[in-house]
Structures are given as structure tokens and as C-alpha cells.
Design goal:
The complex is a heterodimer. Chain A is mainly α. Chain A has 13 helices and two strands; from the N terminus they run αββαααααααααααα. Chain A is flat and about 70 Å long. The two termini of chain B are 18 Å apart. The chains are: A mainly alpha, B mainly alpha.
Chain lengths: 324, 285
């Protein structure tokens, strides 16, 4: 692409830019002369290159490297042996692949609603004039900064079927608690619970930052119109929080598909593979079974799935994301 | 919702509002106790010699001792690794603030043909697990001669799609009227970026400080592979080393975990002041 090919376009041509007002700012005004075009292109490059260079060299480059490894048979030690698409066809015909993707989707389906609704409620609560709210915000953020090694230890104890705190409390009410992480049916719910607990503070911080950009005047206006708390929350807060919500959804889905630390630390995919997820499988293939080629192929399959899901979300955002 | 609105309501709190406020406090504080419990357990275990993890800790430990902490700083190089990790995290954070805000500005304010695709490629860098990038990255760093150097550990952290996306969303919410007014006054993009946009996205910048610092502070796999010399070691690697070496010394492991959380918590508390800073100071709308 030559420099002069980088040109501003009209707002209505770029879905990402539909909220800016065409013709009002210099950026979107048509540039007529060649030197203006070159100057604009240089400005764009000046803003983009500081991030584009490290991303291209240290993420995109290794991604292409992994794509090459996915076409080979390699145990990390012996020379690589080119085998074409064999790793992919092996993965696509193995019923186990579908299973680990299903487990991963199960995780996301349980985790995402919990962490989003919980995080939103927390952000709304801690944005009011609560006594000691700075302290409380700190407490809710503590799990986010604690390592999974420690969190998993504590949760394995809390959810211990015989001596854990959760089943003891359930016992007071005459409920016999499940086997949690020791039971194939309850292993994934245990991981979901611990993950939502740990990440609540993450969602809270993002949404709290988003809440700060909503003008108090809007609430005052809604109050004058007689809107109560629920009405204000659903008609003012949630629509105006949509850019932050969009961010949380995209990031949570991208991270959710790559769930690993908590699975590794709590169950390592067990019992009997009941909580085996995609990245745990990638880890096992690389470091336990010495199949780096197959692991890279599985990563690229995962990549394609995550990319498709993200593109669908970006396409869908114009229906509900509202940039002030 | 906003503090201001609630404050001038205060003189006319109805009994219903009062009850609501009490219930809200009760729920939030009970929740906080649940959030804090595991950390409390960590602290108690860290001061209990011969701690065991199979049963719940005693709330008041028998023979509490700070021996585990002493061991960290005398027998283990925790002083050194904390300084190392702090320096790396500070550099990562400073560089990411720069690369994320400039890219965020371009993706929000500088339209060009193909921008949507470029943005998708940026996001795509988050979509492949680190576990498979490690081997090609190692080969690459080796060819650059950067193995066992801080530069080798730092370079892959210099740009983050997470941070760029975060700041793009924040810049999208800054009203265009502000840029337009500055444009009329003759300001170009660099001035608008530095004097209009940056001051208006302080909450998002502070959020990025927390997450960039945390990402570096907790990063394990890449530093483990690229940094071989003991004097270059970082905190998470030293923490993992404790587990190998002192299989049953849970007090030492938990002390290490407490020590590793405290600086991060300090950064969060410092940044929180700016995260919560209201729109009042930005003068918009």
C-alpha cells in the first residue's frame, strides 16, 4: 500500500465510524491536494506504527511460525517433518476435539452471564454514595490480582465434598452437597463458580470506568421526568454503558475460549476428562505428549472459532452499542 | 446513581430509601467478606508454622510467627525478584500507555480505507493461546540474540490489543464537539490527542495502568523461558520455585503469595482515584 492510498473515507462507508459526524472535523473532510493526502497518511502512520511494529514482530510473526509448525510432525527435539494438513484432518475426525470445544463453550455459557450480571450489579452498587466504598472496591478487586495457584487451592478446599465449607453450609439446611470438582458432572460448574468469583472485580473496574463517562445531568433530567431507579438504570445507565459492555463481552469471549489457568490448577481437565478444555489439551499435547504440530493445529482451529465469534459480535454491535 | 445526584437527595430520604440503603450496604459488605475470605486464609496460613491445607485454618493461629517472611528475604532472593518484577512492570506499563493511546486515537479518530480490517488484525493477536506462540517466539528471540535479556522479555509486551481496544472504546465516548472546537482553533491531530483526548480519558488510562502492570507482574511462561540467569529472575518464577522446593512449607508459599499481592494492590489503590474521577472535571456536556 502506498502512502497516498491511506486516505480518510466518508463516515457512512465505515461501520466503525458511523457515530462521527461527516464533514465536521478535519479528519473526515475531503482532502484535495496530494501533499494534504501525504501529510494525513503520515499522521496515521505516526499514530499506528508504535503499536503495529511490536504486534507484527512479536505476535503475528510467531502466529505464522505456529501455522508452519501445525503442518509438521514435531516433538520439539527431533527435526520437523512436513506432513501437510494431516494434523488438521486428524483433529477434525477425532470425536474428542468436538468434546473439548463443547466443554469450553459450556464454561463460557456458565461463566459469562454470572460474571457480567454480578460485575454490573457490583459496579452500580459501588458507584453510589456507599460508606467505605473505596475500601470495598479494593476488596472486590483482590481476587483479580491473586494468582490462580492460590485461588485454586482455596476453592478446592471450599468445594471439598466431605470437609469443605460450601457443603457444610448446605448441610445445615439439610441439603446434601454434590461432589464438586471430584464429580465429572460438577467439575465444570466448580471451575465456573471459582472463575466468576475471581473475575467479578475485573468486570466491575471496567464498568465503573464506563459509568464515570455518563453525565449526571442525564440522571437529573430523567428524575425530573419522574423516572424511578429501575427506569433510570435500564433507560439511561445500561444503554450508555454499552461501549464498556461491548468491550467486556469481546474480551470475556476471547479469554473464555482460551480458559486454562483455572482448569489446570483446579482439575487439570479431570475427572476422566470431564473438564478438559481446548487450551488444556494444547498444553497436554505440547508438554506431555510431545506433539507440537498437533498442538499448533488445534490452536489454529481455536483461532478460527474465536475470530468468527468476534467478527459476528463486531458486525452486530451497531444494533446495540451507543457511543454517546 | 452518580454520587452528586445521591448526595442532594440525602435530606429527603424516605423510609423506603433508607431501608434500600441499609439492604444495599448489607449485601455489599457480606459479598466483600466472601471476597476477602481466601485472602484472609492466605495471611493466616502464612503466619502459621507447619500449616496444613487439608483442614480449615484456625482463625487465631497457634504460635503465630513471621518466620516464613524472614525466610523469603534471607534464604530466598525475594528482595531482588520484587525489584526486577517492579522494573519490568513499570517499563511495560509506560510503553503500553503510549502505544495503546496512539493506536486507540487512530482507530477512533483517524478514518482510513481498510481500518476495520487493520483493527480486526489487532484484535486477532489476542485470539491464539500464548502456549503455542512461545516456541516460535523463542526461536525468533534467539536469532535476535536477545535470549536472557530484559529487552527480550519486554519486547513482546510493548503493544497490547487489550489496551488498544480499551482506549479506543474510551476515546469513542469523548464528544466530537471537543475536537471540532480545537480544530477551529487551528489544532492538528497531535495537539488534539495530547491536550483534548488524553485529559478526557483519565479513567480508562488509569484502568490500563492497573491491567498492564498486572499483566507484567503476574506473567510467568515467557519470562520463565527467556530469562535464564538467577539474577534476572522475576517474582512469579520465584513463587513457583517455592512450591517445588518446599513441598509442605505452606506458610512460606502463602507468605510469598501475600508479598506478591501487596505491590499490585498498592498500584490499584493509587489508580482507583483516577478510575473513579467523575466527568465534573472534564467540562463536557
Amino acid at each position: 500500500m502506498t502512502l497516498s492510498a491511506i486516505q480518510p473515507i466518508r463516515s457512512d462507508q465505515d461501520p466503525a465510524e458511523r457515530n462521527s459526524r461527516p464533514g465536521h472535523s478535519r479528519a473526515t473532510a475531503p482532502l484535495r491536494t496530494r501533499s494534504q493526502k501525504t501529510k494525513y497518511a503520515l499522521t496515521v502512520l505516526a499514530f499506528l506504527l508504535p503499536s503495529a511494529i511490536p504486534l507484527a514482530l512479536f505476535t503475528l510473526g510467531p502466529m505464522i511460525g505456529a501455522a508452519w509448525i501445525s503442518l509438521t510432525k514435531w516433538n520439539l527435539l527431533a527435526p520437523q517433518q512436513f506432513i501437510g494438513l494431516d494434523n488438521y484432518s486428524k483433529l477434525l475426525t477425532d470425536p474428542r476435539t468436538g468434546e473439548i470445544f463443547l466443554h469450553t463453550v459450556y464454561y463460557i455459557a456458565g461463566y459469562l452471564p454470572l460474571v457480567y450480571v454480578g460485575g454490573l450489579a457490583l459496579a452500580l452498587a459501588l458507584n453510589t454514595a456507599l460508606k467505605g466504598r473505596s475500601f470495598l472496591r479494593g476488596v472486590y478487586f483482590l481476587p483479580v490480582i491473586t494468582s490462580w495457584i492460590v485461588v485454586a487451592l482455596v476453592w478446592r478446599w471450599l468445594l471439598n465434598p466431605s470437609s469443605g465449607a460450601v457443603n457444610s453450609v448446605l448441610g445445615w439446611f439439610g441439603i446434601e452437597g454434590p461432589g464438586w470438582w471430584t464429580d465429572p458432572n460438577w467439575a465444570m460448574p466448580s471451575i465456573i463458580l471459582a472463575s466468576a468469583w475471581k473475575d467479578l472485580g475485573f468486570v466491575m473496574v471496567i464498568l465503573l470506568a464506563g459509568l464515570q463517562s455518563i453525565s449526571p445531568d442525564l440522571y437529573d433530567a430523567a428524575k425530573v421526568d419522574g423516572a424511578g431507579w429501575w427506569r433510570r438504570t435500564f433507560s439511561v445507565t445500561i444503554p450508555l454503558l454499552s461501549p464498556s459492555t461491548f468491550f467486556v463481552l469481546i474480551i470475556s469471549l476471547i479469554n473464555g475460549f482460551q480458559v486454562f489457568d483455572q482448569v489446570y490448577a483446579m482439575t487439570s481437565g479431570g475427572p476422566a476428562g470431564a473438564s478438559q478444555v481446548v487450551v488444556q489439551q494444547i498444553y497436554d499435547l505440547t508438554f506431555r505428549y510431545g506433539k507440537a504440530g498437533e498442538a499448533s493445529a488445534l490452536s489454529w482451529l481455536l483461532f478460527i472459532v474465536v475470530l468468527a465469534v468476534t467478527v459476528i459480535q463486531i458486525r452486530g454491535q451497531k444494533r446495540w452499542v451507543n457511543y454517546g | 446513581m452518580a454520587e452528586r445526584a445521591v448526595i442532594h437527595d440525602r435530606p429527603r430520604l424516605t423510609p423506603r430509601q433508607l431501608a434500600g440503603a441499609i439492604i444495599l450496604h448489607a449485601i455489599v459488605i457480606a459479598g466483600a467478606a466472601i471476597m476477602f475470605f481466601p485472602f484472609l486464609w492466605t495471611i493466616i496460613t502464612s503466619i502459621t508454622p507447619d500449616a496444613s491445607l487439608t483442614v480449615a485454618p484456625a482463625i487465631i493461629p497457634q504460635n503465630p510467627s513471621l518466620g516464613a517472611y524472614e525466610q523469603l528475604f534471607t534464604e530466598r532472593p525475594f528482595g531482588l525478584v520484587i525489584v526486577n518484577s517492579f522494573v519490568l512492570a513499570a517499563i511495560t506499563t509506560a510503553v503500553q500507555l503510549f502505544t495503546s493511546s496512539t493506536a486507540g486515537y487512530a482507530f477512533s479518530r483517524l478514518p482510513f480505507r481498510g481500518r476495520g480490517i487493520v483493527f480486526a488484525v489487532y484484535l486477532a493477536t489476542m485470539m491464539i493461546p500464548l502456549q503455542v506462540l512461545i516456541v516460535p517466539l523463542f526461536v525468533e528471540m534467539k536469532s535476535f540474540g536477545l535470549l536472557n535479556t530484559y529487552l527480550g522479555a519486554l519486547l513482546p509486551t510493548f503493544a497490547s490489543a487489550f489496551g488498544i481496544f480499551l482506549l479506543r472504546q474510551a476515546i469513542n465516548q469523548v464528544p466530537h464537539e471537543l475536537d471540532e472546537a480545537a480544530t477551529i482553533d487551528g489544532a492538528g491531530h497531535f495537539r488534539i490527542f495530547a491536550f483534548i483526548i488524553l485529559p478526557n480519558i483519565k479513567p480508562a488510562l488509569a484502568t490500563l495502568v492497573v491491567f498492564a502492570f498486572m499483566g507484567s507482574w503476574n506473567s510467568f511462561l515467557w519470562p520463565l523461558i527467556v530469562l535464564r540467569s538467577p539474577e534476572l529472575q522475576t517474582l512469579p518464577i520465584a513463587l513457583a520455585g517455592l512450591q517445588g522446593q518446599y513441598i509442605s512449607d505452606w506458610d512460606v508459599i502463602m507468605a510469598g503469595s501475600v508479598v506478591s499481592v501487596i505491590p499490585m494492590l498498592a498500584i490499584y489503590i493509587f489508580a482507583q482515584k483516577y478510575i473513579i474521577q467523575g466527568v465534573a472535571s472534564s467540562g463536557i456536556k
